[in-house]
User: What shape does this take?
Amino acid sequence: MIKGLQALNIPIMLNEQYKKGLGDTLPELRDVLEGDNAKSFEKVTFSACDNNDSWHHLAQQNRSTVLLFGAEAHVCIMQTALDLLDNGMQPVIIGDAVGSRFPYDKKQAIRRIRRAGGVISTVESILFELCRSSEDPAFKTIINLIK
Assistant: This one.
């Protein structure tokens, strides 16, 4: 997902939940996220919208649609999605790129977000939707990532 968004030049924002207690983002992800198009914020709030730095950065992007992926689906992802809806934005949850410790929690979070007005998609579907055409310069990168 991250590499596909990077190929499409889509800004990425990493929110790390309580690093002191939960630890740093995995090095495999951190290494991929380094670059001009990614911002990182530490937060103790569950919703990224409740973190002043995260919210300020997101609002500056002036986008109406926000892609959400990561963990935990039933806590941070869900609360952020509901807050985005409350703020007039459209959250799109990348269903195969979110997780919860327990599958039932993820299932209920996805159900609640959908009922509230959020959109549920998949990595492959959203990357091709953003790419739009096999003529897009990012297409070869995306097709190789999907394979």
Notes: The radius of gyration is 15 Å. The first strand starts at residue 12 and ends at 17.
